[in-house]
Amino acid sequence: MKGKHTVVRRRVRVEPGRTDWRRLAAMSEREITDAARADPDAQPTDREFWKNAKVVFPESKQPVTLRVDKDVLEWFKAQGQRYQSRMNAVLRSYMEAHRAQ
Fold first, then answer.
1. For residue 2, what pLDDT band results from cuts at 50, 70 and 90?
2. Which one, of 96, 83, 85, lies nearest residue 61 by Cα?
3. Residue 89 half-sphere exposure, CB side, CA atoms within 13 Å?
4. The predicted structure's pLDDT at residue 64
């Protein structure tokens, strides 16, 4: 089988959420609405809020082989999952800062 590559995929362990589903199921719609309104990060929106909204699809990513220092890669990986997305965000920030000049 010369020239064939073996791909090994590992399942990512998903941590359980902290939602108390039994408590939520026992709540009335009114209690749920009141709890949402009490949360400053989850305020209801109206038609005016969405009037000028546009659907934006993320650009596809381009796979690339990139050589970086070992300690740099280890640091990003130590920050947790999605380290490649964070590396991309750092590169994007640098690009935008220098593009503006």
1. low
2. 85
3. 6
4. 92
Alpha-carbon distance of 10 to 70, in angstroms, equals 23
Task: Please say whether the beta carbons of 37 and 43 come within 8 A.
Answer: yes
Residues 32 and 38: beta-carbon distance below 8 Å: no
Give 52-85 pLDDT, tens digit per residue: 999 998 888 899 999 999 999 999 999 999 999 9
Using only C-alpha atoms, what is the Rg of the chain?
22
Joined tokens for residue 15: 């941590």
**Helices 70-78, 83-99: crossing angle, 10 deg rounding:** 110
Q: Which two tokens stand for residue 55?
A: 């659907």
> Which residue is listed with tokens 């990512």?
12
SS3 assignment, position 97? helix
Q: How far apart are CA 41 and CA 35, in angstroms?
A: 11
Give 77's DSSP letter.
Answer: H
